[in-house]
Structures
1.
Amino acid sequence: MEETAAKPRRSGGGGRQCCICHERRPALKRPKTLEQIATFLLRLHEKSCCINRSTEMLALKICRECFYAVFEEEIHQVIVENQLFKPGERIGIGASGGKDSTVLAYVLSELNKRHNYGLDLFLLSVDEGITGYRDDSLETVKRNEVQYGLPLKIVSYKDLYGWTMDEIVKMIGLKNNCTFCGVFRRQALDRGAALLKVDKLATGHNADDIAETVLLNILRGDIASLNHVFTYAYFKKLDYFSTECIYSPNAYRGFAREFIKDLERIRPRAILDIIKSGEDFRIATSTKMPEQGTCERCGYISSQKWCKACVLLEGLNRGMPKLGIGRSRGLNSNQMKTDKPTSRTKSIESKQCGSLDF
Amino acid sequence: MACNGSACQSGCYKNGDELAAPEEGGAAAASNSNSNSSSNGSGNNLCVKCKVKEPFTVAGGGGGEDGRFCAECFRSNLFGKFRHAVTSNAMIGPTDNVLVAFSGGPASRVALQFVHELQYKAQKNFDASRDRSLPVFGVGVAFVDESAAHLPSSDKAMDQAIEDVKSLVLELSPPAKELHHFPIESICSGDSSDQREKLKEVLNAVTDATGKEDFLVHLRMLALQKIASENGYTRVVLGSCTSRIACHVISATVKGRGYSLPADIQYVDARWEAPVVLPLHDCLAQELNMLCHLDGLKTIELPYEPQSTINSLISSFVALLQEENPSRESTIVRTAGKLTPFAFNRIPEINDTNVPLATRRRQKRSSLKLNGSISSESFCPMCYSPLIQSKVQALDTPEASKTNSYIFGSSCCSSCRFQILPQDPLCMEHFYSHLPPPLVARASSGNAHDIRSLREHIQDYLLLDSDNEQ
């Protein structure tokens, strides 16, 4: 960005100062990000007004302080407008140690103080037992605990299920490992939340994650999940931070992610448009939604006889790694044939909050 | 399992979450153990349908369909899907005059072929019947010539293509079919050079490549409707197949058109004066290609340069997914099929007593399927997609300066406003003045929303004041 001597009180539009304070020099080097933020802001308010969206508006130049202010204010507005929290609630913050969840933890704790939300905040982290990946990020979360003064709870697959991801991969290889991890993580978050006695779980899923999930649900035929994709944690990403899980290179989600990257290059606002489309989908009420019951083995919520995690665990423990993978197999085979939605959907439905399967 | 397990390398969610049921037509099922050439037991290879003949294979591998059907059964399977779509959605009745949109590509070639065969059979039945009670539906062919939009001037390859289309249609008789060669600029007003000029102006005003491509599609539909109304056609047949629809599902999602998506992907779209029907809805592009190959159906390639747009990105993406899993396109369409369609997604009931009772009954039956469909009162004048009623348009300009072009623009959907309409008000004026009359007419037919003034408290949320240069 060009740097000029600050000229006070130059009006917006073609100015060379931060477009907000008009005083400080613009500091942010990523116009693409700002366009996204601006587009997001505009879209957020599109429902109540029609803004003359000239392209000049999107070429925002913004200084660091104003950027922080804008970003934090935006999140505050999302929280307020959607009435996400009530005073006195205990909120678990899903913390992976990545940038998104670190930012989330920081901002939430800031806003909690600044605007007196009256919330009790906790950090909740899941240790899947992946050496060289998770152990590093867990260190970050432990630092967050100290830095932000938020109590931390770590739930590990080893404690909950008796298996680490490393052990699982050793047994089943690299094809279906993501299935295991996803199912286990969801339950782990839930169980951790229950241990902490939290009322709600906040996650740092960003627009890209949501867009990706909308797409994946369309591709996979999972219409019931489309209803539940919209997490209230509508946080806009700052940077694209991709530390991929070391087991992920073959993940199917990679197809969608690559596509979204390409798409964003051509039309940045497409990510938000995907989310908008998802919100506007009208799903026929005749679509079968799962019935809520309990797992016979562990008591966790399940729409089948056994919850998905138990099915998978049984497979692992019996040395039958394919149990629960694929259709019409395993203990729930009869039910699986007739009920189209899976336990994955049921646990999303059963949650009182938006702990989502990504 | 919907996935071709052994070959697929991706660690995808191949578990109960994969809700796609393997389709007969598309899935390379794991049961394909007796597939392709050099495997054990040459005598085991039999057509899965008639179990008599040997399945045909395509050199280099035809993917999902390869080695399952013999040529006869393959053809009859495909035609069966076509005929099922036509009868269960009451697409073509004996009194209808059907306009088949022909692009030269394999899907519309098959649509044309199948409609012709249907008509031919109906004609033979008519000739053979004693009382001649059931008339034969008429068929015409529309070729919308978009060369003015793609090519700088008259082009030899294009002229040849048009000649090829003419001779192709001539061969499809009896019964004879009229060909309507319609240059797309004809929807604009004025004489032919005016029209070309206006078309160029209006296309150049659209800066977004994807927007331009989509805009051309909207114009194409206008052209088809114009041909239909001027020549008394009661139906427009498109060759849109499962693959094309799957791409449309993704592209509509990606453009923020989730609300109107179901309107475009049903078997019937009766928003138009001549309802648009999609009889190849359940056929895959791969199958249609294969049929053209098998039966020597001539297709015509047009000399247009491919554009790099979101649409082309999505085509490649879907093709990639389809390669990885041959039931992907069907899954996408099936998922989107669970979205609630609109009230206009069925053939309107006929109360005309001249129409045979059987036809009327069939229509009644098909319309029952759409219980709970959405009624929509207003449409985007540009793309004719239904608009969400709750969207309130509040604008920040005084009443006096609301020109027609401004009103037009504000009644468009947000997707068209973003990717098609020029942002600058002057460009917009210019653009609007060159638009084809039928498009303009749509906006003023009671579509314009009430203009409300901007609510004060929203101002606080805006980072910039509304640009003061107005």
2.
Amino acid sequence: SRELFVLTYGALVAQLCKDYEKDEDVNTCLDRMGYGIGVRLIDDFLARSAVKKCRSYSETADMIAQVAFKMYLGVTPSVSCSSAAGNEFSLILDKNPLVDFVEELPAERASLCYCNLLCGVIRGALEMVHLAAEVTFLQDRLKGDAVTEIGITFLRKAEDRKHKRN
Amino acid sequence: MADEALFLLLHNEMVAGLYRAAEQGEGENGRCTTKLESMGFRVGQGLIERFTKDTARFKDELDIMKFICKDFWTTVFKKQIDNLRTNHQGIYVLQDNKFRLLTQMSAGKQYLEHAPKYLAFTCGLIRGGLSNLGIKSIVTAEVSSMPACKYAVV
């Protein structure tokens, strides 16, 4: 019944496009809804997966990509670290189930981030485990890029977490 | 399994988001329900198309309603409709005693006044499914005690 979710998401985006004229408003709305979902989804995720505490940002990013995405969307994006400081990662999705039924964005909606909900979800979930992060789309297949890439930038240093362990 | 949680959360966010926007803007409550219902309608149409691609033709209305109660409901909500009643003159009442979208909310009379918001999408879902199977209908829902609810199809 992933189809139900994908179809519902499509209907939601369509409705939001009708309600808001500007793409940025739709994007913001999707992000906000995603945030609301993320803060609750993390409970469900932790209950289902019973994973242990992640000890580093890269472990967290791997967890999101390999466990969470697989559990909820059935795809496993590949993770790559894109900064020397070790706090910027990108998840590369070559198959995005949310756009299964979407061929292309309509011409007047060129800057719509169709999957912005995902960014909000990741952001909300991370915040509930006390990790502040910025999540955005770096590349989007619907806009003509080769792959869909989500960038996660963790905003706090790893040293904070080490203190908590003592 | 996990998909259900995702859909549940998305649905609840949608309801909350639409009503929040309505409070800030000019829209009245009635319009939110209509929007939710029309979203459900679109989704219902799409879902029914995919489910019935390979199934045989339906014999009559009752057959279609039984399909909705058994296969459709099972695929969407992982359980069948508990009770289907009809007066054989075009009115059907579907009763679900443990409606998935309401079980998390309350188990009695609490929050009863908020229940209709969460049922609007499903009403649209049923209406959309039926419309693509060739039946024009009006679907309304009523809740007397959570999480049981009844859908009336006319």
